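Section 3.1: Structural characterization of target chains.
Under the original work plan, the team committed to producing a structural model for every single-chain target entering the pipeline before any wet-lab resources were allocated. The record below documents one such target. The sequence was received from the expression subgroup and is listed exactly as submitted; it comprises 195 residues.
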Amino acid sequence: MPSEADKTTKAGLRAEALARRDAESVEAATAFAARIAEVGCELAQRLQPDFVSAFYAIRNEPSTLPLLESLSQAGFRTALPVTGKRGIPLVFRRWRPGEPTSEGKMSIREPLPEAPEVLPDLLFVPLAAFDRAGNRIGYGAGFYDLTLAKLRAQKPVCAVGIAYACQALPEVPHEPHDELLDLVLTENELIDCRA
């Protein structure tokens, strides 16, 4: 846990929020994965995106595999991000559950390099901490901020943060380059951050 002096920095807030997330039970994680699939599929039905991306969970992130399975079964085209060099936006490649993956940076599963590159309209985004205004703290590399800025310059997109309610903060420190989330889905509610 961070010291008292570190608790207001992004690094300190990230560490605290991730410690709370790590304390969630296996049962809570399983129930949350099912909720993500249900609510995420309903959201896709409303928004009718061309492509939906989600992240392949690592560590104790909530699993989005049930979501990707539900979306694929409902006829939506799905994708996963591919992480490149720091300072470069993510690339998204088409992927459906059951297709092969390879191990990318930070041991994250990614589509194979020959999978077609796509531009998602609906993105389910990992995070360490968030506030109700749509500010997020990620893992510190800035990949999603760069990616959302690039996508939003090309077309309308909806970014949905996925987090447990315990990862919420009253206010997340933010800078001009930080991209806002449109929605945050927790185990308890779907928060509209645009209001």
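DSSP finds four helices and twelve strands in the chain.
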